[in-house]
Amino acid sequence: MPPSHRRPPRFAVGCALAAFAAVLASPAWADPAPSFAELLAQLDQTPATLEAGALSDAAEARVRQARVRPNPTIALDAENAFGTGPFSGYANAETTLSISQDLELWGRRTARVNVARAEAGTAALQRDLAVIDAAGRLAQVYADAEAAQRRAVLAEESLTLTIADARAALVLVEEGREPLLRGIQGESEAAAARASRDEAVAERDAAFARLTAVAMLAAPVTAIDASLLDLAPASTFAAPEDAPTVRVAEAQRAAAERRIDVERIRSRPDINASVGVRRYEMEDATALTFGVSMPLPLFDRNRGNIDAAQADFRAADARLLGARQEAQADRAAARARLAASVSRVSAADAGVASAEEAYRLSRIGTEAGRISQLELRVTRTALISARTSAVDARLARVQAEIELARQDGRAPFQGAQ
């Protein structure tokens, strides 16, 4: 083929590759979304975080309430009044005004406060875990949106390359160097590429909508400029027992243990002391009254509640053991997946470079008549697959970092907290 017939297709391919690289480096859409770090700084306004914070505040309020002593009871009693005979009126009545108070012996108040403090500690740890989970969800949605954006760019680039190859095939068909079937196949591939592009654009818009909702943004997301897929994972040194799930399980076990003390103390008599003044109308005199009352533990000794509290403690102890084992296994698996995903990203990038060079050489060979259209389609498909694999590899690396960050008790791509 004369040089005048070969140069335009080469130039078109070069422009397509350059345009693809430019689009990946700087998206063309306006009004990009805030960066992941900026969204992470606003995480305390998300519903899940607000709910966990409110539950923690409620637990702290219950601690303050547990410190309060019970209110005294005031009573006014009248005897020997408005009856018959000498008690027909109020002249022989006896009136008593008394105040009684629960003494809260046996450490009742201390045990109650200890349980409330333990539950407040559990609520605080659960709040921290909720914040970590919310950060992980935000990172996942952000990465999904960025990956969808890149896939839409890839689909557009695939359509551009497919149309360019289809036009080149039609030129060869017109020159009689390729059968008419090649032109029909090229048109069919271009139609399929258009459908794939439209689907990728729809997935991108859906991912942007999810990010807008999860991040509670006032304006809809139309583009992602600050990349999360290209960030390197954070290096951490947290021990497996420091996992948030383990700390929560430890706090729940401590609270369950303290509930046993509360139930044991409740089996002891609840003693009340009273003091009062009695008025004798007939003698026109007054006298003090005082007394102590307590229930007789003949029937109810709170054994059922004690046994239930002990069973709850055994269950909490088993949950703690399971949480420690799961944290150790999950963290080892997360570190392995993260290391594998880092290697996969490097391999995917190398594969993209090789596929781009192979496609470039195939296009040159096709223009020179040394390579068939079938081989060109194979290299183009390999290039598209390699670029898609590179996006998938980066998304897998983000997912591995999210999982490891949860085990470390931190936000993804942030230093250990």
Automatic annotation (TrEMBL):
Matching Pfam families = OEP (PF02321)
Which terms in the Gene Ontology molecular function aspect does this entry carry? efflux transmembrane transporter activity
For this UniProt entry, which residues form the secretion signal?
1-30
Asked if the keyword Signal belongs to this entry, the reply reads yes
The family database entries (InterPro entries) matched by this protein are listed as: MdtP/NodT-like (IPR010131), OMP_efflux (IPR003423)
Q: Which UniProt keywords apply?
A: Signal
Q: Which family does it belong to?
A: Belongs to the outer membrane factor (OMF) (TC 1.B.17) family.
Q: What is this protein called?
A: Outer membrane efflux protein
Source lineage: Bacteria, Pseudomonadati, Pseudomonadota, Alphaproteobacteria, Caulobacterales
